[in-house]
Amino acid sequence: MVSSMYMANAQTNQEEFLAKWNGMKGYTVEIIEAMPEDKLDFTPAEGVMSFREMAMHIAGANVMMASKFLKEGDPGMDMEKKDMNKAELKMAVEKSFDFVANICKSLTEDELAEEVEVFGGAMVSRRQVENLIDTHGIHHRGNMIVYLRLSGVEPPAFRAW
Amino acid sequence: MVSSMYMANAQTNQEEFLAKWNGMKGYTVEIIEAMPEDKLDFTPAEGVMSFREMAMHIAGANVMMASKFLKEGDPGMDMEKKDMNKAELKMAVEKSFDFVANICKSLTEDELAEEVEVFGGAMVSRRQVENLIDTHGIHHRGNMIVYLRLSGVEPPAFRAW
């Protein structure tokens, strides 16, 4: 309800992005919270990221992509730490989302429109980078939802903001 | 490469959205293509959508959300048809993505900024609805990637546009 009210007041693309981004942070934390601590190493197949690794990957990729393509900065936490427990995973995710949000808030409209080189040499605007980072997290939350099902856990309901 | 070049020429949020949306259509079709026809009924747990149902769900939800929240229209195909085979699933997905794209292209900036009521009574702009529809598909492709892994199939590489 709070997020709906915020959304109603969003006037620009950037405000809309930040409102959604904040919601996606909460959803990611809920998904991690839903997994029992003793099942964090669950993986659906050999050679595929475990649930724990995937949570670390979302947090690490948020920071890496924002630092590399939007603006350099310090997330205030070592995102490379191995074998984070559930509380650490949730904190890393929160810090990584806040790190991205703070960078996004600091960008001017001109900086958002400016093109930067991303993976594979593609030139995209920083607005597109914001959406790339968001899309990456959504994708892996989609993976993690199935990991929860396979671990006998009813996942938190899908949400898009 | 073609999509990178298109991206480089995108000047507005809406052009950027449409370039991404078109890429997401191709990625969805690739994911369906990767699943063997005899494994379309794979489901990871009781009561959870099968791979076939999830592909139908993405196509159906694209059409439903665009019709309900963006602008009414006819997708030119029965999205409710049960037990589509792989060729039909791919066609339904393509038609549903094209349906959404055509509606999005037809919306003016004023219409995109206008707020509409969505699930749960939230008021959001049509721009936000576009992102909601995109997010829904990304989420379920994330699910389907794990279905592929569990079926012994190496999934197509993640992409965000």
From TrEMBL, chains A, B:
Q: Which UniProt key words apply to this protein?
A: Metal-binding
Superkingdom of origin organism: Bacteria
Q: Which SUPFAM superfamilies match?
A: DinB/YfiT-like putative metalloenzymes
Which Pfam families does this chain map to?
DinB
Instruction: List, alphabetically, the InterPro entries matched.
Output: DinB, DinB/YfiT-like
Q: Can you tell me which residues bind a divalent metal cation?
A: 57, 136, 140
One molecular function GO term is: metal ion binding
Instruction: Report the family membership.
Output: Belongs to the DinB family.
What protein is this chain from? DinB family protein
Q: Which organism is it from?
A: Echinicola pacifica
* Gene name of this polypeptide: yjoA
